[in-house]
Amino acid sequence: MKKKWFCIAITWMVFGFAAAHAKEITVAVAANVSYALDDLKAAFAKEHPGIKVRTIIGSSGKLTAQIRNGAPFQIFISADMSYPLALFEQKIAITKPQVYARGVLALFSPKPHNFSKGLFLLDSPAIRRIAVANPNTAPYGKAAVEALKNSGLFARIKPKIIFAESISQTVAYAMTAADIGMIAKASLYSPKMQRFEKGRHWIAVDPSLYTPIDQGIVLLKNAKNDASCRAFYNFILSPQARAIFQRYGYMLP
Hints:
Layout: H1 2-20, E1 23-30, H2 34-47, E2 51-58, H3 60-68, E3 75-77, H4 82-89, E4 98-103, E5 105-108, E6 130-133, H5 139-150, H6 154-157, E7 161-164, H7 167-175, E8 180-184, E9 202-204, E10 213-219, H8 227-236, H9 239-247
Parallel strand pairs: 1-2, 1-3, 6-7, 6-8
Antiparallel strand pairs: 3-10, 4-10, 5-8, 5-9
């Protein structure tokens, strides 16, 4: 019996030592990726139990501003390629942006609608408020405005638009303060959103209406010569991670 308890004590000491000496990395993550983040981190932890991944979530534009102002992030997972490319050109990122997934824009309402009208549903008198992410800081907001302009709707429905800081806040607005929202399709695969039905509560926006949302990842200066950061960076670009992204409604590049 004493031997058994001794073994248990040693086991807990080993786990405690490992936890105390776990390497922590800090990753800036675009809001649309937050829905797949738990699955990504869990899959990574199985392969690298000694690395703790700390994530800071926000719009790509705001995260970029924080990085430029010296925020101690080591990896940046952006919602597009322009922000990480700018950081690379400014020598703040040490790797050229690599595409890890392609985002998909969706039209969503918690209430059933006739989504066969596509974006022209937004012109209906029944739709009084439309949630859209800020196009100046959120790539999905930029894509949403582009889609509205290309469909000839933007000028007419602009008074209805409520701009949110990020795509996750756009989802929150669509659920509460607005009648409908233009959101990341990935959010619809989160546990809280899976009850909503395609064609009844949401549809994917015609991808020909907006520039493809290629999403990029870079290593930042704070990750230089850091093997743990490189391991997570490589994981995000791995087939295993891409399968998770695909499960959350992303397209593969």
